[in-house]
Amino acid sequence: MEGAKATAVADWAKRRGHACLRFDYRGHGSSDGRFEDGTIGQWFEDTLGVFDARTDGPQIVVGSSMGGWMGLLLARARPARVAAFVGIAAAPDFTEDLMWDRMPPDLRAKLARDGVIEQASEYGQDPYTITHKLIEDGRKHLLLRGPLAYTGRVRLLQGMQDKDVPWQWSLKIAETLTAADVQVLLVKDGDHRLSREADIALLTQTLDSLCA
């Protein structure tokens, strides 16, 4: 919640006189717990719990990467409360389609046997931990296997140089959503984070347009 995009959204909200809620899932950022103990279901419980306890009325939900999966789950669970959703490199179903399906057989076997594997991360010195329970639990929350029931406004910001989430993923999300007001905004030289000054400007402009 202290990342560049989250703080930029908070600053934008303050300038416009809106409230803004940020939080870290368990095992992330300032929250207690270990990342490797978490699952998609647990992180969605965090999302739903915070949303229900700390917000009132219609909301614009913003989610980046895994947060995009959480945001879409929230939009489906609370359609009357989520007026609009903004996804930044949104990654629903990533545990199955972008991890498991891309994993070579030897790593799949090791993950099934040991329950955990570690892979190098481009975003820090510590390796990225993948657990078998993360994969298994993720299968209970897949969204892109059929129509995704949500009729609010949706904006999907996606970098075309994203090495983690292919830009075509945003098109797949758009096709799956039942909503009519869906726009995919592609940034040709953008990466996964989309946290450069120009990317942040695009994000806040998108929020301005939704408020208008």
Question: Could you characterize the architecture of this molecule?
Answer:
The protein has 212 residues and is an alpha/beta fold. The chain contains 8 helices and 6 strands. The protein has helices at residues 4-16, 40-54, 66-77, 94-99, 105-114, 132-138, 168-176, 197-211, and strands at residues 59-64, 82-88, 116-119, 128-131, 153-159, 182-187. The longest helix has 15 residues, at 40-54. The mean pLDDT is 95.
Tally of alpha and pi helices: 8
Relative helix content: 40-55%
Task: Describe the strand arrangement of the main beta sheet, using strand numbers.
Answer: 1-2-5-6
Tell me the number of strands: 6
Report, as a whole number of angstroms, the end-to-end distance.
26 Å
Shape assignment: globular
Order of helices and strands: HHEHEHHEEHEHEH
Question: Radius of gyration over alpha carbons?
Answer: 17 Å
User: Which oligomeric form is depicted?
Assistant: single chain
Mean pLDDT value: 95
Could you give the topology of this structure?
Layout lengths: L3 H13 L23 H15 L4 E6 L1 H12 L4 E7 L5 H6 L5 H10 L1 E4 L8 E4 H7 L14 E7 L8 H9 L5 E6 L9 H15 L1
Parallel strand pairs: 1-2, 2-5, 5-6
Antiparallel strand pairs: 3-4
Helix pairs in contact: 2-3
